[in-house]
Design brief:
The chain is globular. The strands form two sheets. An eight-stranded mixed sheet has the order 3-2-1-4-5-6-7-8, with helices on both faces. The protein is built from 18 helices and 14 strands. It is α/β, with parallel strands linked by helices.
Length: about 600
């Protein structure tokens, strides 16, 4: 009886605490708004840095019906800024742990977790339509584009947010009322062609990108998208050995990378010419004899700071082997297989600097000092917990304004909703938070307006249709599984991504070039992405002067509000029944690079 009484008293205490919390919220928000928020069904996308803060804010503001989607699992590196997670949660789903944690803040709230990728078909327009609003907490550009398009298709308000170091922003998006996430071009990280990084580097930055991929391959989690994944078996086999001689591992990896692999690359005669000679292998014994350093000016080392000197080849060899041995040392051995590169970690920076310099030696590229290498390799801005907290708070405030406007039948642009920027340490007009009115949709946006997308390529002869879809349509326009139409004929169906008898029976030839399909400069196509809830007209333009350096992928994406008007594409069944054009006699091959 005593135990039962204690349990009843505990339950009464919790119920009393909840009532007091509800009474407090009702007093602060007002009866109507409190009821509105309690009845609102929300989808939160992302449970990382911003997502943890956001979920906590939402349940404490009175939102009691929430679903959260996140693909990731918890890593040790997340624990310093994603406060809902503890060491015991490592390797568990972020969405599931976050849902469990925030329900403790507000007993009685319902938070449903989905450990999945928001780009999966199950999270399409029908799924989004059951929510009153969607709140983003993503750090992935492709996923943000996708959620933006699904919300436009479902006509649901979207709260969009992001942070970069001490900078952050929050925006409110609704179809036809405000500009969408893609109305303004977003800066993207420079992407280098695979073949440049893997086989034909020409600049120090190419070798540094290679070295960072090598660090991830040797010491990070398994990742099939790593540019050096073909070397994974050789580089990762030591992880299973116990005990392991780190110095011997370093020398083995050295020989495989800077001697054996370089010999294989040099044997690919088609890649090399007088202007671009083949790389030279660097045997370990010979490299250890190359012990003359070079100063930044290119003459033998003079009295400057050690980090500003370009080390000798022998010093790079010793530094590389020492870095590998340090990674396999007892104090770091348990981190092998889950390490993440950081320019501020001396061992990982030594590994990347020395590996990059040795590769530069292989390819006759001027090597870098540690100072310069760290500046280039560390161009990634880390997440800051306080910025995430500020952004998440602003996102909830703007959500409250947006829901009130929708309930009152107002346009978001006529409401108190604002786009807000977080600016620090150089605030605007001495204000860290800078609000601005929501902008109208961009009439030239090919996502939310009637504009036409334009993709410029050097030559339509160079692009096979399957490669064009993967790089330009999926990569450039951010589609998931797009079909492509020309003159009411389906010329690419995602159900048949590769050449096969089945594809040919449907009149599809993924291995044909754009030119073989009769597509020339100025041709008008239609893109249909059913999974992504997106479609647009597309003009393909040839630009022989397209810069390799500015557009290493070989294409440029623009929007144009030109007068092109295309008929609605036919159904796939009708489209594939159309007769495909006859291919020309000559067949062009596309280099993967």
């Amino acid at each position: 009886r005593c135990r039962a009484r204690m349990m009843l008293n505990g339950a009464d205490a919790l119920l009393g605490a909840k009532r007091r919390r509800d009474d407090g919220l009702r007093a602060v928000l007002g009866k109507e708004r409190h009821a509105l928020f309690a009845s609102t069904k929300l989808l939160v996308v992302g449970a990382g840095g911003i997502g943890c803060e956001l979920l906590k804010n939402l349940v404490l503001t009175g939102f009691t019906d929430i679903e959260v989607v996140d693909l990731d699992t918890i890593d040790v590196s997340n624990l310093n800024r994603q406060f809902l997670f503890r060491r015991a949660h490592v390797d568990r789903s972020k969405a599931e742990v976050a849902a469990e944690a925030v329900q403790q803040f507000q007993p009685g709230s319902k938070v449903v977790a989905h450990h999945a990728n928001v780009k999966e078909p199950q999270f399409g327009v029908e799924f989004m339509s059951k929510f009153d609003a969607v709140v983003n907490a993503l750090d992935n550009l492709e996923a943000r584009r996708h959620v933006n398009r699904i919300c436009l298709a479902a006509n649901k308000p979207l709260l969009e947010a992001g942070s970069t170091g001490y900078l952050g922003q929050v925006a409110v998006i609704r179809k036809g009322e405000t500009e969408c996430f893609e109305c303004e071009a977003k800066p993207t990280q420079t992407v280098y062609p695979y073949c440049t990084i893997r086989s034909t580097p020409e600049k120090p930055v190419h070798c540094l990108v290679w070295a960072k991929n090598l660090f991830d391959l040797c010491f990070g989690p398994a990742d099939e998208s790593n540019l050096l994944s073909d070397l994974a078996e050789e580089m990762r086999k030591f992880q299973k050995e116990d005990p392991v001689d780190g110095e011997a591992v370093g020398k083995t990896i050295y020989k495989q990378l800077f001697e054996v692999d370089v010999q294989k690359q040099a044997a690919l005669e088609d890649l090399w010419s007088e202007a671009r000679p083949p790389p030279m292998p660097l045997p370990l014994e010979e490299a250890l004899k190359m012990d003359t350093g070079v100063s930044p000016s290119g003459v033998p080392s003079v009295a400057v700071l050690d980090v500003q000197q370009v080390p000798s080849v022998a010093a790079d060899v010793r530094g590389f082997v020492k870095a590998v041995a340090s990674m396999y040392a007892p104090d770091r051995r348990k981190l092998v297989g889950q390490s993440v590169f950081s320019k501020d970690d001396a061992v990982s920076m030594d590994f990347v600097h020395c590996a990059a310099n040795l590769r530069m030696t292989n390819y006759r590229i001027a090597r870098l000092s540690r100072w310069d290498a760290q500046s280039i390799a560390g161009a990634i801005i880390p997440a800051v917990a306080s910025t995430n907290a500020i952004v998440a708070g602003l996102e909830v405030v703007q959500l409250m304004h947006a829901l009130k406007a929708v309930a009152e039948g107002k346009s978001l642009r006529e409401s108190s909703s604002r786009a807000v920027w977080v600016r620090y340490p150089e605030p605007s007009r001495k204000k860290i938070l800078q609000p601005s009115r929501l902008q109208r949709p961009n009439s030239e946006c090919f996502v939310c307006s009637a504009a036409t997308a334009r993709i410029s390529v050097r030559s339509v002869d160079d692009w096979k249709i399957a490669g064009f879809i993967k790089c330009c349509i999926q990569g450039g326009l951010g589609t998931l599984r797009a079909a492509l139409y020309h003159n009411r004929t389906c010329i690419f169906d995602p159900e048949y991504p590769e050449a096969s008898e089945e594809a040919e029976e449907e009149g599809l030839h993924p291995d044909w070039t754009l030119a073989q399909w009769g597509i020339g400069s100025g041709a008008l196509l239609q893109v249909e992405d059913e999974d992504g809830g997106f479609s647009c007209n597309l003009v393909v333009v040839e630009d022989p002067d397209l810069s390799d350096e500015a557009f290493p992928g070989g294409f440029r994406v623009d929007a144009c509000a030109g007068p092109q008007v295309a008929a609605e594409p036919p159904s796939k069944k009708a489209a594939v029944e159309s007769k495909a054009p006859t291919p020309p006699t000559e067949v062009f091959e596309l280099d993967d690079g």
